[in-house]
Amino acid sequence: MPEQNEPLKHGAEEPVHDVAVLGGGSFGSALAKVLGENGHRVHFWMRDEVQAEEIRTTGINSRYMPDVVIEGDILPTTDLGSAVNKAEIVFVAIPSKAFRAVIKENSGNFPQGQIVVSLTKGIEANGFKLMSEILQEEIPQCRIGVLSGPNLANEIANRELTATVIAAKDPQVRNKVQDLLGCEYFRVYANVDIYGVELAGALKNIYAIVSGLASALNMGENAKAMLITRGLAEMSRFAVSLGANPMTFMGLAGVGDLIATCTSSKSRNFRVGHAVGQGKKLDDAVAELGQVAEGIYTLELVKERAEELGIYMPLVRGLFEILYGDAPISAVINKLMMSVQNSDVEFILPRTVAE
Ligand SMILES: NC(=O)C1=CN([C@@H]2O[C@H](COP(=O)(O)OP(=O)(O)OC[C@H]3O[C@@H](n4cnc5c(N)ncnc54)[C@H](O)[C@@H]3O)[C@@H](O)[C@H]2O)C=CC1
Ligand SMILES: O=C(CO)COP(=O)(O)O
């Protein structure tokens, strides 16, 4: 670990590490690029041989990141076993719907003690499992971490200044990820609250959809701030009731990611909300996006879970009614505005009024 104020070093003077990135979409490409630029050998796994060949020969992933050249020692492959076998550390950027299947099918390829870090911001439908829980179940021989934060893939790929969070119980995992990824445009902060960091990343997608809707309706800055802040209250209420640490939501993975995605049309979840706010059907909005918007699945799961546990989540309920119940947006807004007025920060002043 570098001493306080000692500059990060990358390039010729640093040892080259073999790393694997699983998932050839936007975020896998962005992370592969950071690792490649930091001088590491990147075994970059994707399903599609045509895509692998394109990256091998041109450095470009034209479907997901057409304007960016992924430079460095990048070795695209469709052989997951060999990618994982050669790597000291594996980063997984596969959408939540396919996450378990890919890991399970290849579980025997992950050696004892290998570090495996999830980059995925979603929840598994069956049993409300987070990706770190899936890793724990499918490859218990590995050491697990979660990377989450305000990390819009395109900005990272364009070397725009970015910070993220590595959450892991094992300090060696945290240090390793900081060492491998940190550079002049990418900073990695550490946390031990895996569940909180991971839940924050998944939950904020819901509020990015809400914010996209608000933007399409030309809501003012006060309204946008209200939505983001009440979103934060709601997601931290939910996560804390499931065992997360509320303070995690003060950090990059909580409020940081919420700000990035709720204020930017670069967020795919925001874009889905915006399209629905303009009158598009959800299915059409998702089809036009052509990339994953995890929030639409997370919304259904969180609504169901919140109801089971009796957790008050009016924005989740309202968005669900709009996306899946065809409720008029104006009626939902009116119901939210006219509901019982309550505590601002419930960790200071508990909510007292029954809904
Ligand atoms: N794009 C971003 O800015 C960020 C994305 N994430 C998270 O990373 C995860 C992946 O997202 P993106 O790369 O952005 O999605 P994407 O939509 O850009 O790409 C998805 C990739 O997953 C692959 N894939 C889908 N099903 C698969 C399967 N069964 N087996 C193997 N590969 C499969 C697709 O072929 C594609 O390469 C998501 O959970 C997302 O929330 C996290 C931080 C930032
Ligand atoms: O999680 C993200 C940025 O931190 C990406 O958000 P979207 O999936 O909405 O694009």
TrEMBL record:
Compartments, as annotated in UniProt: Cytoplasm
Enzyme Commission no: 1.1.1.94
A GO molecular-function descriptor: glycerol-3-phosphate dehydrogenase [NAD(P)+] activity
Main location (coarse class): cytoplasm
Binding site for NADPH: S26, F27, R47, Y64, K121, A153, R268, V292, E294
Keyword Nucleotide-binding: yes
Keyword Membrane attributed: no
Amino acids binding sn-glycerol 3-phosphate: K121, G149, K204, D257, S267, R268, N269
Protein name: Glycerol-3-phosphate dehydrogenase [NAD(P)+]
Species name: Marinobacter xiaoshiensis
Lineage of the organism: Bacteria, Pseudomonadati, Pseudomonadota, Gammaproteobacteria, Pseudomonadales
